[in-house]
Each structure stands twice: as structure tokens, then as C-alpha cells.
Amino acid sequence: MEAHASLMELLEDIHDPRHARGKRHPLPALLGLAVVAMLAGMTSSEAIVQYGKERGWEFLRHLGFTTRWGLGKATSSRVFRRIDVADFEARVGRWIQGRLGSGDAPHLALDGTTARGSRDGDAPGVHWVSASAPDVQAVLAQLRVDAKTNEHKAALELLGVLPIQGKIVTGDAMFTHRDLCAEVIAGGVITSCR
Predict the structure, then answer these.
(1) Which range among 1-5, 58-62, 173-177 shows the weakest confidence by mean pLDDT?
(2) For residue 48, which of 24, 74, 23 has the smallest C-alpha distance?
């Protein structure tokens, strides 16, 4: 049943870390706006809020907003600093996967990335491994990793939660470890390294 759940249904029970006092907008509405705006190419809190305002009240009401006023960049920014981002990303990934047909994404690409500008002095940058479907231009899942040496462990975890039967899985040399290749072969996929 979850395969056909709407985005708003999947976002409904995400833990809301905000205090009851001062809550103007339901959390699923704020998160739904963020997803729709990002799908439309918005990349900052300010752009997401502006996107919602430009679409008008009917659009916002459809997402679950209950009041016309108070939608602002600061609220959006606070929400994303406090929510469980991994849970949010997993739910959006499940929503995307639920919309894909069996032949829509025959290719999965594994890749590790470090966020530009996230390194601070001696502290390493924010690093994650993602599994994307290039044919539909969507990231299906991603996991944050502590360091580049843990990429293949995160990739193993991703392969354990993604439907990989009958898909071509590609990755760079970082993903040529025996245990990762064994997982891919056990999943019944065609492997490829680039």
C-alpha cells in the first residue's frame, strides 16, 4: 500500500521537533512545499518560500497550509535544521520509487560526493553516498558517511534497501570491493564499473 501512498501521506508522521507554541504551519505542509519547490529547481530556503508565495493560496492550501500568513525563510530554515533529515530523505525516496514503473529506471548509479564548502579547517567536509536513477533524473536514496573510506559500507546499505533486481548498477573504482560486488550479484543485477 505504501508504494502508492501520496507524498503528503508519507510526510504525515515525521516527528515534528517544534514546540506547540508558535506553530503556524503543519510540518507536512512545509516539507511538501520544499519537495515540490526543489523538484521545480529551487535550491535555497528563500527560493522555496518565494516559490510557495508565487503559486498562491490555493496551491498552499492544497499542500495543507492552514493560514495565509507567516510563511517565511526563517521558519523554513529552522524546520530543516531540526527535523530528522535522514527520515525525510528516506520518505521522499520511497515516494519516488513508488511512482516508478518496473522499466522506468533500469540503471542505478552509485556515487560518493563531498558537499562543496562544507569543510571547516581541520574538520572534513560533509560526505554522502547516493543511488540515483539517471534515466529519470532522480536520487532514490542517499546516506551520509563519516569519511571517504566508508563509502562502500554505505553503498552496501543502500543496495540492501533498494529494489535492484534486473537493474544495471554502475559505480566508480571505490565500489569494486568484493563484498559490494557480491551483494550486487546476489541481487540479480548486471554490474558495471566506470
Answers:
(1) 1-5
(2) 74
| Structure confidence by residue, pLDDT tens digits, 73-126 | 888 888 888 999 888 988 888 888 788 776 777 888 899 887 776 667 776 677
- Pure H helices in 113-177: 151-161
70 backbone φψ class: left, alpha, beta (φ>0; ψ -120 to 50): left
- The answer, as to whether pTM is greater than 0.90, is no
Point out the domain boundary residue: 72, 96, 120.
Answer: 96
Q: Report the alpha-carbon distance of residue 34 to residue 164 in Å, rounded.
A: 28
| Total tally of structural domains belonging to the chain | 2
Instruction: Identify whether residues 25 and 80 lie together within a single domain.
Output: yes
Q: Which domain holds residue 143?
A: 102-193
Going by C-alpha positions, the residue among 120, 146, 141, 138 that lies closest to residue 130 is 141
Tell me, what CATH number does 134's domain have?
Answer: 3.30.420.10
Give the Cα separation of 151 and 148 in Å (integer). Answer: 6
